[in-house]
Design goal:
The chain is of the alpha/beta class and 331 residues long. It is built from ten helices and 15 strands. It is globular.
Length: 331
């Protein structure tokens, strides 16, 4: 397996795939990053560019874990070489760039698994099941909330040097934390209307947005609010679902689901013991099945294009101060 991008997520994918029996090669323009990865996970190849790695041959699949700006060229190169790809989110910086990858995938027929990893998180799979069972009745409002100070993400390096601080590399809250937009579409499909603000409001020394607030309108009366920020402490990730028959609350920390159906604070609680890396291992296992032809990707480029279109809608709404029609909602 070729790991393209030897930073934090690349090292994680390398460790996980090696633990599942894969031999690892890596790509990064920075020799010190390749050396760091190799110190953690033995490698059979180390290359400064994906072109050099592809020319060396001996590959069965490619993991693209580089900054977002490099996704299109690197993914298309892998697809043209006939190699299945595990692509980290988001697909690209823009919807137009994302469609170039989609077109290459259709042209080559080579599979791409998109790494919106929260889809593999056991508590959220349980939430989806409970919602589909109608546990809290007809949904009316859902609140997605992600707040985490950027300086805490990679404490081993200055956050100003992290790609998240760079507009050119595709950093920022809206793109990188599009996990939560993907989860919205995974749960509910595409909304009919979107409005939002994308801003830089904190004192963080970055070029990118650090605050996103959006409202999605569904034609059946469901309203979904989304808040993403890069300045909050303590870190919080949660989703609150309010239905006509009760409320359901999921949080990442503590790792649990609570359900309430009474007027008072009476909650049914389910606590989970899974760890964050478990969802990355689950993605790696699925990718190996995709490479072997045993399964098709469960999170596809088409899913990623939907997310990119909604990102563009939020950008347009923020720039023009308007509500954007996003088309007929999915069934």
């Amino acid at each position: 397996m070729l790991i393209v991008g030897s930073g934090s997520v690349g090292k994680r994918h390398a460790r996980n795939l090696a633990s599942l029996g894969c031999r690892i090669s890596c790509v990064d323009p920075r020799a010190e990053r390749r050396e760091e990865l190799a110190a953690e996970t033995p490698v059979v190849g180390s290359h400064p560019t994906i072109e050099a790695a592809l020319a060396a041959g001996g590959l069965d699949g490619v993991v693209i874990g580089s900054p977002t700006a490099f996704h299109p060229a690197q993914t298309i190169a892998a697809l043209d070489a006939g190699l299945p790809v595990l692509l980290e989110k988001p697909v690209a910086k823009t919807a137009a760039e994302a469609r170039t990858i989609y077109d290459a995938q259709k042209r080559t027929g080579v599979p791409v698994l998109l790494g919106y990893t929260w889809r593999w998180w056991p508590p959220l799979l349980q939430v989806r099941s409970r919602l589909n069972e109608g546990t809290i009745g007809k949904l009316r409002h859902v609140q997605f909330h992600m707040s985490a100070h950027l300086a805490d993400w990679h404490p081993w390096e200055p956050y100003q040097e992290f790609f998240m601080a760079s507009a050119a590399q595709g950093g920022g809250a809206l793109l990188d934390e599009s996990h939560w937009i993907d989860l919205m579409t995974w749960f509910f499909g595409t909304p009919a209307e979107l409005s939002g603000r994308v801003e830089k409001i904190s004192d963080l020394d970055i070029e990118t947005d650090d605050n996103v607030d959006a409202l999605a309108m569904y034609p059946d009366g469901l309203r979904v609010s989304l808040h993403l920020d890069l300045y909050g402490r303590p870190h919080e990730k949660y989703i609150r679902f309010i239905g006509e028959g009760g409320s359901l609350f999921w949080s990442a920390d503590p790792n649990r689901i609570t359900i309430g159906k009474q007027s008072g604070q009476v909650w049914e609680e389910e606590t989970f013991t899974c760890e964050r890396n478990d969802m990355f291992v689950a993605v790696a296992r699925e990718f190996l099945d995709v490479v072997a032809g045993r399964s098709k990707p469960s999170c596809t480029l088409a899913d990623g294009i939907k997310v990119m279109d909604l990102i563009e809608a939020i950008r347009t709404s923020s720039a023009e101060g308007c509500t954007v029609q996003t088309g007929k909602a999915d069934a």
